[in-house]
Design goal:
Layout lengths: L4 E4 L3 H12 L4 E4 L10 H7 L12 E3 L1 H10 L1 H9 L3 E3 L24 E4 L1 H12 L5 E4 L4 E7 L5 E8 L4 H4 L2 E3 L2 E4 L7 H7 L5 E6 L2 E10 L15 E3 L3 E7 L4 E9 L3 H7 L2 H9 L13 E3 L4 E3 L3 E6 L1 E2 L2 E2 L1 E2 L1 E3 L5 E2 L7 H18 L3 H38 L10 H19 L1 H11 L12 H13 L1 H8 L6 H10 L2
Parallel strand pairs: 1-2, 1-10, 2-6, 8-21, 10-22
Antiparallel strand pairs: 3-5, 4-5, 7-8, 8-9, 11-18, 12-15, 12-16, 12-17, 13-14, 14-15, 18-23, 19-20
Helix pairs in contact: 1-5, 1-10, 2-5, 3-4, 3-10, 10-11, 12-13, 12-14, 12-15, 14-15
Length: 494
Amino acid sequence: MSERIVVVGSGIAGMCTAMALAKQGLDVTVIERDDPPPQGDADKAFFEWPRRGATQFRHPHAFLGLMCNLLQDNYPDLLEDFYAAGARRVDFKDMLSPELLPKYKPEPGDDKLWVMLCRRATIETTLRRYVERFNNIRIVNHITIDGVVAEGEGGHLNVRGLKVRRDCTEVMGEEIPADVVVDASGRTTRFPRWFQALGVNVREENDDAEIVYYTRHYKLKPGVEEPPRTGKDRSAGDLGYIKFGVFPGDNGHFALIVCLHKVEEELREAIKDGDKFDAICRSIPGLAPWLQEGNVEPTTPSFGIGDIRAVWRHYVEEGEPLVHNFFAVGDAALRTNPLYGRGCSTSILHAHILGETLTQTSDPRARALAYDAQTEERLRPIFQTSLTEDKNGIKRSLAVADGHLLEESDSWKKRFGLAFGDALAAAARYNMHVNRGLMRTVNLLEKPGAFLEEAKTKRIVLFYMLRGRSRNAGARIVRGPSRDEMLDMVRRFA
Ligand SMILES: Cc1cc2nc3c(=O)[nH]c(=O)nc-3n(C[C@H](O)[C@H](O)[C@H](O)COP(=O)(O)OP(=O)(O)OC[C@H]3O[C@@H](n4cnc5c(N)ncnc54)[C@H](O)[C@@H]3O)c2cc1C
C-alpha cells in the first residue's frame, strides 16, 4: 500500500511539493482552506479570487533562475502553460546594462540566467490547473487543518495525522490519518504551536527586516508599449530611505513596489494614498517612465504588507529529529525578505529535496535527518545571505533617516568596504564576466557570492578599486530625490 501523504496548503510551496512528490510516484492529498481559483482567465483570478490564506497574494512575484530552471528541467509543459497564460521569459541579454548590451556575445550557461514574470494570480491559477492533471494528486478545498495528531513522549513525536476544524468535519471527519504530513501552510503556520502544546519546542531564528512593502498595480492603455529597459536610470534601486522596483506582469499589467523602513512614518502614511503613491514613484527617474500621464491606469489601490522577517525553524536538535513523519516546506520552514524574490525558488528547491528524501528511505528518523541536512546545505547559504542583506539594509535606512550620507564612514574598515562595494557595482555594470557571476548569484544558481572567489573576478574588481571610488560611484548612485526633498514633495501634495 502506498503511503498516505498529506500536504497542508496549496500555495506555491504546496503545489510544488505535490508535483515533486507525484513525479516520484507518490500519492499526495493537498488540503487547502481557501477557494480554488475561479474558472476563467488571469484577470478573473486577479480581480475576483478571494485568496485570504496567502496575505502576499496581491503583491507581485517574479521567478528567479533557480525556479525557472527547475521548472524547465522537470515540468517543461508547465512552462508552456505559463507562457500561454501571458507569463514572460526575460533572458540574460535583456537584463544587461546599456553599456554591456552592445558587447554581448552568448556563452555557455547564459541560457540558465533568466527570470519569469507574471502576476501571482496567473502563477497560482496556472500551477493549480497543471497540478489537477496529475492522477496521483488530490486537492481538497474548504478544509481548515486545526491541529496535529501525534503519539510519543520524551520530546520525540510520531505524527499520525491531522485534526480538522469542527465546521469542516462533516466532509473529512474529525481527523485525517496520514503516514507523512507536509506543512506548506506558509508564513502563519500553526504547527510549531501545536507541537509546543504536545511538549515539543521548535526553535526559531526570527529577525525583523524592519520594512513595510507597498504595491500598486497598473495596466497599460491599449496600444501603449512598456518603457524600454535600456534607459540610463534603472527600474529597481535603493535611495537609502526608499527601495523601489517595477514588476512587469502578464497581459499588459505591471506593478510598482516601494519599501520603507518602519521609522519612515510620514512617508508610510502618505504612500497608502494612491495619488501620493503615484507622485512618489513619478519623482524617481527609474520609475517615472512607467507612469507617463495618459499611458496607464491603476487597477488597485496602493497597499502594504508588514511583518517582513527572516525566519528559520529547526526540526532537528543535537542530531535528533523532534518529530517523525513531518516535514515543513516553503515559508512554513524558512522565510526570506521578499525584496530579493527568493521565496518561490527556495520553496520549489525544498519541495524537490523532500521528493528525493522520501524516495531514498522509508525510515522516519533517516528521512528527517536527511531532509534537515540537505536543507542546511542547500538552503542555509541563501537564508544567511538574505539575513546579512537585511542587516545592511536596516543600517543604511537608519543612517539616512538620521541625516547621514550613505558614502560617509568613520573607520578604515568601513571605507574599504564602501570602496569594494563601489568597485563591484562598477565592475558588474561595465564588465561582462563580473556581471555574469553576479547574475548567477542573484538567480541562486550558485552559492551566494561564489563568483567572488574566482581569480579572474578578483582581478577585475581589484582593477576597478584601483581606479578610485569617484570613478566607480556612478555605478552605485541611483538618481532620485533626497529624503528631505521627498518629504517636502509629499507635504506639498494637494
Ligand atoms: C510581499 C511579498 C512579495 C513576494 N515576492 C516574491 C517574489 O517576487 N518571488 C519569490 O520567489 N517569492 C516572493 N515572495 C515569497 C513567496 O510568496 C513565498 O515564499 C512562496 O509563495 C511560498 O509560500 P508558501 O506556499 O510556503 O505559503 P503561502 O503562499 O502563504 O501558502 C500557504 C497556503 O496554506 C494555506 N493554509 C494555511 N493554513 C492552513 C490551514 N490551517 N489549513 C488549510 N490550509 C491552510 C493558505 O490558505 C495558503 O493557500 C514574496 C512574499 C511576500 C510577502
